[in-house]
Amino acid sequence: MKATTRSIRALKGKRPIVCLTAYDAITARIADQGGADLILVGDSLGNTVLGMEDTVGVTLEMMVHHTAAVVRAKPDALVIADLPFALAHDNFPNLLKSCRTLLQKGGAHGVKIEGGTSLAPAIEKLVDAGIPVMAHIGLLPQRVHSTGYRRRGLTPADQQKILADARAVTAAGAFSVVIECVDEKLSQQLTSSIDIPTIGIGSGIGCDGQILVIHDLLGLTSNPPPFVKPEANLHRDAVSAVKRWASKVRKVSRR
Asked: Which CATH architecture has domain 5-251?
């Protein structure tokens, strides 16, 4: 059965939600056949597959290209696409156009937007326009140049801000919210205080679901985040396979 934003939201309190990123048809099929409920076409594709230092250089055109590739795999999982750097802060007509492009040209079922209270009015208007929104609070990778990569929710003031963000995006109509790299006790509090699913990454087990970059999970990346425990080591296995094949090719004598 194909997942929808409604079916994902209905899983809160029933069972943990399994989410993975994917950037092409091959990884989308792996995620889908492995049992993912939701596939995020993340702007982490910049770091993971495009060789960028961070997500800031990822463009809307790149996101449409990779989202369409994921959708072509025809997964049963819900497909959500990241809205790239700074577009969420554009004027609403341009924001709506960007989100519409991800759905109409990319084939996404909704968009993920980084930001909390300040973006709640825009989220509400997008939802009213028929665009499902997955919010993203806590550590915000798109703000790496202003805030860096650091665990959030370690001070009372920051905890209150993140809690306010969670409540604001919920009230605005987001169907779920990613909580990245926040203190585990805070993630538990967030989960119990809002009625939409919380999807954790590096935020402990107190969320309604978990999301990982599929390349990190499969051991394809050389330096995964410290909270990732790979379930395979495909980079090692792939290198070994290439070496074996290369050795066979070099042993073949010319005739």
From this structure: Alpha-Beta Barrel (3.20)
